[in-house]
Amino acid sequence: MIGNDWDFALGDEFEKDYFLKIMDFIEEEYKSKTVYPPHDEIFNAFKLTPLSNVRVVILGQDPYHEKGQAHGLAFSTPDGRPIPRSLKNIFKEIKSEYGYPIPDSGCLEGWARQGVFLLNTVLTVEEANANSHSKCGWQTFTDNVIKILNDNEKPIVFLLWGKQAEKKKELITNPNHLVLITSHPSPFSARRGFLGSNHFRLANEFLKENNLDEIDWKL
């Protein structure tokens, strides 16, 4: 289904009744409505970041719900699309930490290929209807994904931004991992902690301390 080691890790999950119900639900949604991301990009985060390569997890909520913005990676948007405001604040924080210029593109595939798992807790959404698929079962699936990551003995950094992401802290019990929590990068909350959080540098310091390659946050 995915094409890498996630297939083995999630093999049992894909056979469970709740997951099959999700698949039935979204198939009907894609047939009858406009749904994002494109059907073949729902699992992009998993395809671009194999389980064995995950070093940092950034949790989003549901995909962007406007045309052309979502492509299966939390906070990311394809080349050529306007950069959403939350992502602009992410880039501002990286600039303040490292001095990197704010990029022209909001595509974060370069991070994903380095081991930054850009996971939305809900993987699909109806056009112009935020949170429309939040109760179809996706969060059961992504909670189980987080549990799989938690069970990984290789150290991982979890970046939990905002109250919804913070709720997932209870799933991360392995002392090998680092959990960093602050406000969401949305313009409504970024100044309550996200801006100035130093999360990107702290993540790299933790990776370096554990003899893992740091993330190049420059796009």
> Helices and strands, in N-to-C order?
HHHEHEHHEEHEHEH
> Total number of helical segments?
9
Low-confidence stretches: none
Beta-strand fraction estimate = 5-15%
Widest sheet, order of strands = 3-2-5-6
**How would a crystallographer describe the biggest sheet?**
4 strands, parallel
Given the C-alpha coordinates, what overall shape results?
globular
Structural class: alpha/beta
| Number of separate strands | 6
How confident overall, as mean pLDDT?
Answer: 97
Using only C-alpha atoms, the radius of gyration works out to 17 Å
What distance separates the N and C termini? Answer: 29 Å
Folded structure, characterized:
It is a single chain. By secondary structure, this protein is α/β, with parallel strands linked by helices. The protein has 9 helices and 6 strands.
How do the helices and strands line up, and which of them pair or pack?
Layout: H1 6-9, H2 11-15, H3 17-32, E1 35-36, H4 44-48, E2 56-60, H5 85-98, H6 109-114, E3 116-120, E4 125-126, H7 138-151, E5 157-161, H8 163-166, E6 178-182, H9 199-209
Summarize the structure in short:
This protein has 219 residues and is an alpha/beta fold.
Search tags:
single chain, 219 residues, alpha/beta, four-stranded parallel beta sheet, two-stranded antiparallel sheet, 9 helices, globular
